[in-house]
Structures are given as C-alpha cells and as structure tokens.
Automatic annotation (TrEMBL):
<comment type="similarity">
    <text>Belongs to the ABC transporter superfamily. Ycf16 family.</text>
</comment>
<dbReference type="InterPro" id="IPR017871">
    <property type="entry name" value="ABC_transporter-like_CS"/>
</dbReference>
<dbReference type="GO" id="GO:0005524">
    <property type="term" value="F:ATP binding"/>
</dbReference>
<protein>
    <submittedName>
        <fullName>Fe-S cluster assembly ATP-binding protein</fullName>
    </submittedName>
</protein>
<dbReference type="GO" id="GO:0016887">
    <property type="term" value="F:ATP hydrolysis activity"/>
</dbReference>
<keyword id="KW-0067">ATP-binding</keyword>
<feature type="domain" description="ABC transporter">
    <location>
        <begin position="4"/>
        <end position="246"/>
    </location>
</feature>
<keyword id="KW-0547">Nucleotide-binding</keyword>
<dbReference type="InterPro" id="IPR003593">
    <property type="entry name" value="AAA+_ATPase"/>
</dbReference>
<dbReference type="InterPro" id="IPR027417">
    <property type="entry name" value="P-loop_NTPase"/>
</dbReference>
<dbReference type="Pfam" id="PF00005">
    <property type="entry name" value="ABC_tran"/>
</dbReference>
<dbReference type="InterPro" id="IPR003439">
    <property type="entry name" value="ABC_transporter-like_ATP-bd"/>
</dbReference>
<dbReference type="InterPro" id="IPR010230">
    <property type="entry name" value="FeS-cluster_ATPase_SufC"/>
</dbReference>
Length: 252
C-alpha cells in the first residue's frame, strides 16, 4: 500500500525558515487532516513535497513508497502517484481542461499504453457528472475565468481522473458553499481504499463533518504540535487555537 513519510523536514523560503521539523506518516487507507492558523506553513509543506523550486529543503527526509522523494523531479513525483490540489489553482490559457487531464494521465503511462480517447471521454463524463460540473468545462481553458468554487471542483476532478496514491488537498474547502462542499467531500470519499491515502489541509472543521479523518494534526510555527482523532478538530472549531498555545507555552 502507498506510504508517504516525512521526517524532521526544515524548509526555507528566501532564507526564512518556515517548516521547522515537520514530520508525518500517511499510509494507504488513511485520511489525515492538518489544521492550523494562517501563515503556519501548511501550503509551504504541500509545495515543498511536490518539489516547487522556490522552497529550499535545509534538513530532514521524505520518502514516497520507500523512495527518496526529495531526489525525485517534479514530474516523477506526479507519475509515482503523488497529487496536490493547490490552494490557489493556476489558470492556464490555451490548454483545455480535457487536454490537461488527458496528457497528465498519459504522462504516467508507457508509450503504446495511452488511454483511448473514447475511454477517456466516458471516464471524464462520468466523473464530471458526479461532481456536478457542466460538460462545457471540458473544453474551457484550464481554470480560466472559473469561480473559486469551480476551481476547487476542478482540482477534485483531476484527482478522480488521475487516481493518485497519495493526495494532498490544500484548503480544498475554502470558498465552497455547503452543496459544493458535499460534492467535493463525496469525491474524496469515493477515492477511499487501501490503495489511497489523503492529507486534507484545512482551516475549518466543516469539511471533516463529511470526510471523517483517521487522524487530525495541529500545525503551528512550522511543525505538528498535537495529534488526535476527529474530536480534536471539533474542539478546535469550538475553542480556537489558544488552549493549545497555552498548553504548549507558544506565544505569537
Ligand atoms: P499557510 O498555508 O499555513 O497559511 P504558508 O505556507 O502559505 O502558510 O506561509 C507560511 C509563511 O511563509 C508565511 O509567513 C508566508 O508569508 C511565507 N511565505 C509563503 N510563501 C512565500 C513566498 N513565496 N515568498 C515569501 N514568503 C512566503
Ligand atoms: Mg494561508
Ligand atoms: Mg495555505
């Protein structure tokens, strides 16, 4: 089964240390949630794991299915089955949604083993229907002019189409109304299997009402400071973060 293991990760942006000893292990079949205040390094973690060049790893290790993740090129990480739904998905003019997803699927396959156009279209129609995305979106340029909620659904569409081994969903719930939130949650729940692990990064507990995490981690100042079960998310929603800061003697 899939495995993502991060140990004592330190990451700097422009010589400022953002991640300060971050560690986590996610196996297939598990859904983990990370909650934490703004600016604590959650998106930095996601970008660093995907290999974004602006993020300098100064210390620590990460392995994906036993391989050294930090030595892998960005496209190798994706092809190995690591997926990131970005907090702020980019708009790409001139590339349609369908083209983008189809080439992403095929880049993970051997020559001669590419997905047939018919099969791709059927598969995409099916997933778009599930996510209640209008079929015209296939032919629109990637995220161009999409609303916030449409971009988030589109990230989940990519996940369902690419069938990654481990997915990192960075604030996939932000800007969604309750109906869209349920649709997105259903997409994640449909992926649940022993062959899939997920890291949900979120500010709010409400998505976790629909996708029950196995573990909830609190992130502050660049590392995980507390872990627990779903009840931890509920307490954070009710009481905020101050009690944890007090407990740990953290000042901000
Ligand atoms: P979170 O996702 O938890 O809100 P981020 O990872 O986005 O936090 O940001 C963590 C810290 O890194 C913040 O202090 C932010 O200002 C800083 N930061 C993030 N991205 C950049 C960047 N590209 N250049 C400089 N500083 C950045
Ligand atoms: Mg933020
Ligand atoms: Mg963020």
């Amino acid at each position: 089964t899939p495995n993502l293991k991060v140990d004592d990760l330190h990451v700097s942006i422009e010589d400022k240390e953002i991640l300060k000893g971050f560690g986590i292990e996610i196996n297939g079949g598990e859904i983990h949630a990370i909650m934490g205040p703004n600016g604590t390094g959650k998106s930095t973690l996601a970008s660093a794991l995907m290999g974004h060049p602006n993020y300098e790893i100064t210390k620590g290790n990460a392995t994906f299915n036993g391989e050294d993740l930090l030595e892998m090129e960005v496209d190798e990480r994706a092809q190995a089955g690591l997926f990131l739904a970005m907090q702020y998905p980019s708009e790409v003019s001139g590339v349609t949604n369908a083209d983008f997803i189809r080439s992403a699927i095929n880049s993970g396959r051997e020559e001669g083993d590419e997905i047939s156009l018919m099969k791709f279209i059927r598969h995409m129609d099916d997933k778009m229907g599930k996510l209640e995305i209008d079929s015209s979106f296939q032919h629109r340029y990637l995220n161009e002019g999409f609303s916030g909620g449409e971009k988030k659904r589109n990230e989940i569409l990519q996940m369902l189409m690419l069938e990654p081994k481990i997915a990192i969903l960075d604030e996939i719930d932000s800007g969604l109304d309750i109906d869209a939130l349920k649709v997105v949650a259903q997409g994640v729940n449909d992926m649940r299997s022993d062959d899939f692990g997920c890291l949900i990064i979120t500010h709010y507990q409400r998505l976790l009402n629909y996708v029950t995490p196995d573990k909830v981690h609190v992130m502050m100042q660049g590392r995980i400071v507390k872990s627990g079960g779903p009840e931890l998310a509920e307490r954070l929603e009710a009481e905020g973060y101050d009690w944890i800061k007090n407990e740990l003697g953290i000042e901000d």
